[in-house]
Amino acid sequence: MTADVSSPAERRRHKIRARILSAAEQVFAREGADGLSIRRLAENIDYSPAAIYKYFKSKDELVDELKETFFELILENVNRIVDTSTPFAERSRDCVGTYVQIAIEKPHHYAAAFAGQASAGEGVAHDDDREGSKKEQAFNVLSGMIQEGVDIGAFRSEIDSVLAAKSIWASMHGLAMMIVHIPTFPSFQLGQADMTRDEFILFHADQVIRGLEAHHG
Amino acid sequence: MTADVSSPAERRRHKIRARILSAAEQVFAREGADGLSIRRLAENIDYSPAAIYKYFKSKDELVDELKETFFELILENVNRIVDTSTPFAERSRDCVGTYVQIAIEKPHHYAAAFAGQASAGEGVAHDDDREGSKKEQAFNVLSGMIQEGVDIGAFRSEIDSVLAAKSIWASMHGLAMMIVHIPTFPSFQLGQADMTRDEFILFHADQVIRGLEAHHG
DNA sequence: AAATTTGAGTGAACAGTGTTTACTTTTTGA
DNA sequence: TCAAAAAGTAAACACTGTTCACTCAAATTT
């Protein structure tokens, strides 16, 4: 995918960049963006804090790269499901399930990926939202699958697949967020556990997809 | 609602507490939890930073109170909709719309309210999740309304209203979060605007509620 | 009324944070 | 070989939340 860089100097530079990112990734996965400090990171890779700034303009830029990599992970996994030849209904549910599962496995990544600070008032378009981003690619996969559902008659014919995809994504996102920062979700109290988390994910997926379906049995 | 406190000393203390919270509220609404610093807050109310700690154990505790107040706001507004005598279908949609609208008006509050840091691994129950909290009250209102839908035959009879409420909430939450931190949502690019935000909120509400409905027209 | 205790409020410090600047060392290319 | 560019650094700046020892005034107790 990425073209090899020419000079050995540039290759070396790229390697160190990767080393920084790798160390950052590990801390980030465990403690999130707040737990990841430039000074700690510098110590981990035996550099001075200021050295990091020869490779990244700011901590935000560094974290943005971690996020982008995370989106690639989502895209890969969702694509793998979409390309399967399992029945459409099951495939849809798997898609939702996989998406949420990734959020569960890397909660800090997921929370950070969708938390480019909450903007009060008119906001400037964030870098992540640029055309052709991994985020957008993932979205296109989803809307394509919904269009397929419409085409084969599983979903209502009047559905705009792009609009529906946005709605579905919002619903998935909501579940992922709930699970990520309410540790006991879907139970609120610790003791009561009427349904396991995985069961609830399937239930939610079902609920969401049912909103698109043409007729019920 | 709140019982008057006895001694004038306690009243005075309560007053200052309120003054701190009020100042905090204003900064928080504009700039969120990160923009709100103890030192800035102290300066706003002409106190030393250390003085704040005579009234709040920590910044987190202070912010938690802002969050609780915010949940009260949600609860009040949603309750007002639920108690209306408008037709059930319309009422459901209004409920979703109102919920999301509040998130839009106070994006920082909303984002913070659901962001008791993302926990990797087993988490301890957060204070907000205690029994009888405003959060739980709001949830009960929602599940009550769904039960009503089942009772009058609008929703499928086999629906567990508590489970469904959790799913619906997740879907609402997702939309709210999307809007709150993707400034251009539901459009990804700035230029393209096939549907207004308010229209999309209604569309999403429709989609979500349709998942519960017994039969379609 | 005097003495004592409680609580409010403070300045200074501790231990962090992201980031920049001036500086030295190393590497690279002509 | 030698100048130029890049890598790396120590120290400082401007912040952050929080704590500690302290003062001073108000309320309680004797």
Strand % of chain A is under 5%
Helix/strand class of chain A: mainly alpha
Rg of chain A, alpha carbons: 20 Å
Globular, elongated, flat, extended or rod-shaped: what is the shape of chain A? elongated
| Chain pair forming the biggest interface | A-B, 64 and 65 residues
Low-confidence spans of chain A: 118-125
**Strand count, sense and closure of the main sheet of chain A?**
none
- Average pLDDT over all residues of chain A: 87
Total count of helical runs of at least 4 residues of chain A: 9
Strands of chain A, total number: 0
CA distance, first residue to last residue of chain A: 46 Å
N to C succession of SSEs of chain A: HHHHHHHHH
The share of residues in helices of chain A is 55-70%
How is the secondary structure organized here?
The structure is a homodimer of 217-residue chains.
Chain A (H helix, E strand, L loop, with lengths): L7 H28 L2 H7 L4 H4 L6 H24 L5 H18 L1 H7 L20 H18 L9 H21 L15 H14 L7
Helix pairs in contact in A: 1-4, 1-6, 4-5, 4-6, 4-7, 5-6, 5-8, 5-9, 6-8, 7-8, 8-9
Chain A binds a DNA duplex (30 and 30 nucleotides) through helix 1 and helix 3.
